[in-house]
Amino acid sequence: MNRVYVCSCFGVTEDQVKKHAEDGACTPRQIASVSKAGTDCGSCVRQIQSLLGRGACPRRELAEQGRPALAELSGLAGHPMPAVTAEAA
Question: What's the whole-model pTM score?
Answer without folding.
Answer: 0.62
